[in-house]
Write a structure and sequence with these properties.
heterotrimer, A alpha+beta, B alpha+beta, C alpha/beta, A: two-stranded antiparallel sheet, C: alpha/beta, Amidase signature (AS) enzymes, 11-stranded mixed β-sheet
């Protein structure tokens, strides 16, 4: 059972606002989906590996070399605000 | 009432690599223009993907081996999810369930009361790779973000709570510092933030009556994050020991099963301050990083990394003390840095005198010069010290002159050969005799004083002669000749 | 079609500029009614015209789904949260399309979450064959553009069917290559271990033609695979090919779809292939695995949209002064569309403390089982066929309020993303002018086989 408290806790974790009026909608939709995915309980996974890579790739490493970085202009164009070459945000603490 | 401190440390060291953990931006950012080392990957732009830096993996294995950790042939990266402005992707790529190394230890020297010191084993739970966050600077009404540090490779070394005092915590931290620096896996420059400590500390308080335990309490664990010097680590521990005991007494000694608390450290006030209670919102939702295939390290890869460590500081110390008969303090200074030790060994090949004399010069003079000048021992031309000391041993150069020469060459890049030529001892008996005669003639009163028993006058006279000779005389010859002449007066 | 146009350009019968103008003007004309494009990039295209005969796509008009970054262009991922985002870099897959002419950026469900393009922050895309119906999704804009002829090829992304399903709904060809064959670098991530770039074209040959350009190892994508270069347009003989017919439950599948599928089996038999029914008992768990793992990955992939470095920046108002950091974040993220919010919430839930083992870890293990089961099946057969979708294109608005029924429309397509294998959808019938699709799945890196079979079926059915 997914409670209102669960929904609010999750919303807080991912910083998504759910309006009071939407809580029961989300509660229902989430419950429906959770109910559907519970079908997996039928499958015995006792001896199955929890490491997964689609093509069984492993140990993909790059050499320790450097490359050119972005111009600050390319960062500035999308940033909320800047001060010289720093990204400036409102006091958020 | 018996109070015992329980301390565990999480130590972050910046692994020595050219580029960042998951992208090719340079990881040498100190004092560079903010946000000049950024690319789509470390800026966390939509669509960018990480690729693991091989050298970071090699360095992690090297540290693991040096700290007696098991190197796991199977490990992987996970995402640690939390949103904060300095964490650009909204998750940190770290190793959670399957770290690259687990279960190691180091020995530290601890105080053993009247019996001096003894060796104590501190167990290490794990050491895992992760990426650093950006730097945020907080002002009264805004915060500035510099991402140069974001994505720099870190190794987090997590100890067991095996330490029982601030001294032990400091000793352990220094031990890790020494080992990691010595194997050149990190520069551990704390001013550059390359080594940071997270302290976990609480108290176990036992009440006894007539020798038997009545009740046992534990104060809530306090985590003090981001301590950036040994001194801060020591003082924060001492402060917490006192604060927690006081709190315990104030709360009428009620057992508190409270949540873990995070406190910050104010270095100016030498105090910790409350930051936050670690509550349910701290749900990091770890899951395997889908952008990075797991690490399956073969034996050859691991062995090659291990082999590249060479010698460990404790082994080097033993060689210096046992083989070369070097005193413990001097030897300890030389193993502070791998480059000092290498320098010692390479000069020793060319130096004909005693290893301990060479070691004294390195630890007692050269290291000081380097600290003063900010230069590295690698900047000193190889063989110079051996040449100078060989000259001294042959009575061709005074130790005073050697100090001057080293200073000039190291600090001013002056020409060594010319300096030696200008300062080499003049073995001209006539010149020395004339000089001594002049000095004696000009210091008749002092000679009389000496004769009347003021022995100290002799070194004054030697000094006068030496000055006249511009330091280029052999002090023992001066002394010999002076005494002879005075006695014959 | 692409090779014919290329020939004309090479022979100077038509200039690259004229081609660009022709297709762009068509796109501009059609867009008010179809809404296939979020941006039509006329200025960009005309100022970037370039031609070199050796580049196979030189001057060929293409549409790129708007979750694929192109340097200097707005890249929205179909979401209002990125409405002003200018990408400073290009996806590797775009860089591999040397000299192509960009007609525009394709409409899509925001962040590719959806099967109808109704979740776009830029309005729904209409199906060119029936404008009251959806074009499918999430690459609905790309499929509609190809079907209506405003571009000759399109690059979409496919996480659970997002290339194949809209291709099927619009009566065109949709190819999802093997995971790792084409680089994901620069694709705005949805479910990172499922996402692949994909191709939408008018015919199978064109898909193979474009695949030749984008199948390339990329060191910037750690999941990219080094595969020997091959020419996918050289179709191989398919006589005696072992074709597995997926045994599926007909419940919830339109009878038209089943009829078309039965017809296709007959066609395949007539081509000399050996047909047998194949049972994959764990396939029924695919959707559940998908709807745990993908939202989990989404919840992390979308945490970077915090309104600071890019994207929609919340501004202080009298009502909202951002007393706390979370106030700021919540405001920035309020621009997410409903389906985006829903998936972030599902994923956050399935990963949250206490549920990891029951959901994520369980699903990961079942994914391993399904992958193995499919791999084993390919010991007996060379390809596996099924319908692409359980229904033809549905009416706009029909499923939007019922997420689960929308999710169920991915039933045939998700399995190949679960196992990372290639799959192609080709039109195999029309009922009341609405196309149905046939899906052919192959072994990992067996693109050549599925393209060959698709080509011969296409020849037989439509020529």
């Amino acid at each position: 059972m997914i409670t209102k408290k669960d929904i609010l806790h999750i919303a807080k974790l991912c910083n998504i606002k759910i309006e009071e009026s939407e809580i029961s909608k989300f509660q229902n939709q989430l419950a429906q989906i959770i109910d559907y995915i519970n079908i997996l309980n039928e499958v015995d996974t006792e001896d199955i590996d929890s490491f997964f890579e689609v093509n069984d790739l492993a140990t993909v490493l790059r050499e320790d070399t450097t490359d050119i970085s972005l111009d600050f202009d390319d960062i500035k164009i999308n940033a909320i605000n800047t001060d010289k070459t720093q990204i400036k945000v409102n006091k958020v603490l | 009432m018996e109070v015992k401190t329980i301390i565990g440390l999480e130590i972050h060291v910046q692994l020595k690599t050219k580029s960042k953990m998951f992208c090719s931006c340079s990881s040498e950012y100190f004092n560079d223009i903010p946000n000049s080392h950024m690319c789509p990957v470390c800026l966390g732009l939509p669509g960018a993907l990480p690729v693991i830096n091989k050298e970071a993996v090699v360095q992690a294995i090297r540290v693991g081996e040096a700290l007696n950790l098991d190197i796991n042939s199977k490990s992987r990266f996970d995402r640690k999810n939390y949103m904060y402005p300095d964490l650009f992707k909204g998750y940190q790529i770290t190793q959670f369930e399957f770290p690259i190394t687990t279960s190691g230890y180091v020995y530290i020297n601890v105080n053993n009361g009247d019996k001096g010191s003894k060796s104590k084993k501190i167990r290490i739970l794990r050491a895992h790779m992760e990426e650093d966050t950006a730097k945020s600077t907080h002002y009264s009404d805004h915060t500035l973000l510099d991402g140069n540090k974001a994505g720099v490779p870190l190794l987090e070394i997590v100890s067991y709570p095996d330490m029982e005092s601030s001294e032990e915590a400091k000793e352990y931290a220094k031990k890790i510092y020494n080992i990691v620096r010595f194997i050149q896996a990190s520069d551990c420059d704390m001013e550059k933030g390359q080594m940071r400590f997270d302290l976990n500390v609480n108290l176990k308080i036992t009440k006894k009556e007539g020798g038997s335990v009545v009740k046992e309490y534990r104060t809530p664990i306090v985590e003090v994050k981001n301590l950036n010097s040994f001194r801060a680590l020591e003082r924060a521990t001492l402060y917490e020991e006192e604060r927690q005991l006081e709190e315990f007494r104030k709360n009428a000694e009620i057992a508190q099963v409270g949540n873990k608390v995070t406190r910050g450290w104010n270095d100016n006030l030498s105090k910790t301050f409350f930051q936050r209670e670690k509550e349910e919102s701290n749900d990091y939702r770890y899951f395997p990083e889908p952008d990075l295939p797991p690490l399956y390290l073969n034996k050859e890869f691991i062995d090659n990394a291990k082999k590249s460590i060479g010698i460990l500081p404790d082994e080097a110390l033993k060689i210096l003390e046992d083989k070369y008969k070097i005193g413990s303090n001097i030897a300890t200074t030389i193993v502070e840095d791998r480059s000092y030790y290498n320098y010692f060994l390479s000069e020793l090949i060319k130096y004909k005198g005693s290893p301990s004399n060479l070691a004294n010069w390195i630890a007692g003079y050269i290291v000081g010069l380097l600290n003063e000048s900010g230069k590295s021992i690698l900047d000193i031309s190889s063989g110079m010290l051996a040449i100078l000391l060989n000259l001294e041993d042959a009575n061709n150069l005074s130790s005073l002159k050697i100090k001057d020469i080293l200073k000039e060459v190291i600090l001013e890049n002056s020409d060594l050969d010319k300096l030696i030529n200008d300062n080499i001892i003049i073995k001209d008996d006539n010149m020395l005799d004339t000089t001594i005669d002049n000095i004696l003639a000009n210091n008749k009163e002092e000679v009389l004083k000496y004769k009347s028993g003021k022995d100290g006058i002799l070194s004054y006279l030697i000094g006068q002669v030496m000055r006249e000779m511009q330091g280029r005389a052999d002090p023992s010859s001066i002394k010999e000749k002076l005494l002879k002449k005075i006695n014959s007066i | 079609m692409i090779d014919k146009l290329k020939e004309q350009i090479d022979n100077k019968k038509i200039s690259v500029e004229d081609v660009a103008k022709e297709y762009i003007s068509k796109a501009k004309k059609l867009n008010p009614e179809l809404n296939a494009y979020i941006s039509i990039t006329e200025d960009y295209a005309l100022s970037h015209l370039s031609y070199s005969p050796q580049n196979k796509l030189s001057g060929i008009p293409g549409i790129i789904k708007d979750n694929i970054n192109i340097k200097g262009l707005r890249t929205t991922a179909g979401s209002r949260i990125l409405e002003n985002y200018i990408s400073p870099y290009s996806a590797s897959v775009v860089l591999n399309l040397s000299d192509f002419t960009l007609v525009g950026k394709g409409n899509m469900d925001a962040f590719a979450f959806g099967s109808s393009t109704e979740n776009s922050g830029y309005g729904v895309t209409h199906n060119p064959l029936d404008k009251t119906r959806v074009a499918g999704g999430s690459s609905g804009g790309v499929a509609a553009a190809i079907a209506s002829g405003s571009a000759l090829f399109g690059i979409g992304t496919d996480t659970g069917g997002s290339v194949r399903q809209p291709a099927s709904f619009c009566g065109v060809v949709g190819l999802k290559p093997t995971y790792g064959l084409c680089s994901r670098y620069g694709l705005i991530a949805m479910g990172s271990s499922f996402d692949t770039p994909g191709v939408i074209t008018r015919n199978v040959y064109d898909s193979a033609y474009v695949l030749n350009e984008i199948a390339k190892y990329d060191k910037k994508d750690s999941t990219s695979m080094k595969v020997a270069k091959q020419d996918y347009t050289k179709f191989r003989d398919i006589k005696d090919l072992r074709v597995g017919v997926l045994n599926f439950s007909e419940e919830g599948v339109d009878s038209d779809v089943i009829d078309a599928f039965s017809n296709s089996i007959k066609t395949i038999k007539s081509l000399g292939c050996k047909v047998k029914t194949i049972d994959l008992p764990h396939l029924k768990y695919s959707l559940a695995v998908y709807y745990i793992l993908v939202p989990s990955e989404i919840s992390a992939n979308l945490a970077r949209y915090d309104g600071i470095r890019f994207g929609n920046h919340p501004e202080k108002t009298e009502d909202n002064n951002f007393e706390s950091l979370s106030d700021f974040y919540v405001e920035a993220r309020s621009k997410f569309e409903d389906e985006v919010k829903r998936r972030i919430i599902i994923g956050t839930y399935t990963l949250s403390s206490g549920y990891y083992d029951a959901y994520f870890n369980k699903a990961l293990k079942v994914r391993n089982i399904i992958k193995q089961e499919i791999k084993n099946a390919f010991l007996d057969v060379d390809v596996i066929i099924s319908p692409t979708t359980p229904s033809v294109a549905f009416k706009i608005g029909k499923k939007i309020e019922n997420p689960l029924s929308m999710y169920l429309s991915d039933i045939f397509t998700v399995s190949s993303n679960i196992a990372g294998i290639p799959a192609i959808s080709i039109p195999n019938g029309y009922y009341n002018k609405l196309p149905t699709g046939l899906q052919i799945m192959g072994r990992s890196f067996g693109e050549s086989t599925i393209l060959s079979l698709a080509n011969f079926i296409e020849q037989k059915l439509w020529k």
